[in-house]
Amino acid sequence: MIKKTLPQERWKDCKMSIPSISWQHMYLANGTAFSPGVYTSDKDYFIDLAAAFRSEIQALYDAGLRSIQVDDPNLTFFVTKDFREGLRGDGVDPEALLDLYIWAHNQVLRDLPADLHMGIHLCRGNMPGQPSFAKGSYEKIAAKVFPKLNYQTFYLEFDDPRVSGHFEPLRFVPQGKNVVLGLVSTKVADLDNKDALVRVYEAAEVMAKGQRRNVSDVLADSLAVSPQCGRASFIINHDVATEDRMWEKLVLVRDVARSIWEDAV
């Protein structure tokens, strides 16, 4: 469908989303992600699954795609106290499981084409009028996830500081990796205001301090803005994702970007 809609020279500008390698492993009961006797360990399971992911990614690349976003609502669960306590109740060490998932993601990213851009969206849920399923600062995972996950770009949700906290965890983002700030909500119908402009500079200051760089340099090569999540995650999203309001919010994102970056489209 994409190829029929766009001329070939624009295919490289498209982005496709795929699920996280940890999805099934996390949502099934401990020890049930694979049949007994098939694999000797979780790592063996993930090695095979990562090979399948790499094969799919290579097929997408061969078809002309150059940008892929992994949607991962799993890693954000590790910011919550209840999830961590639940894991301990099941006899699972939360930090060891987080380490395993980071390792599994990096297995997917091995030996990919150099001009393929890979990003990950650390989602918190997109149900309108409902509380986030991962409320809390990225602080509890930032020291591991940002430096150790080998994605080029992190798509993060910062539309509501009451849910996501503030930007302090971005001090762990190393130079050479990008952050897309999801500042405009896709969960509420009200049009956001342009205080997003100020918040971009706040995030840049935190990253610059962590990387020991100038704010202007971080803004130039490491930051972008976007909506907080997608527009069609749930059919119940219809009151929020009316076509007119969707475009109004996208125009707001565009206007904020143009106010900061001269080369913004």
UniProtKB/TrEMBL annotation:
Residues 43-230 form the Cobalamin-independent methionine synthase MetE C-terminal/archaeal domain. One of its GO terms (molecular function) is 5-methyltetrahydropteroyltriglutamate-homocysteine S-methyltransferase activity. InterPro entries: Met_Synth_C/arc, UROD/MetE-like_sf. Gene3D superfamilies: 3.20.20.210. GO terms for biological process: methionine biosynthetic process. This is Cobalamin-independent methionine synthase MetE C-terminal/archaeal domain-containing protein. It comes from Colletotrichum phormii. The lineage of its organism: Eukaryota, Fungi, Dikarya, Ascomycota, Pezizomycotina.
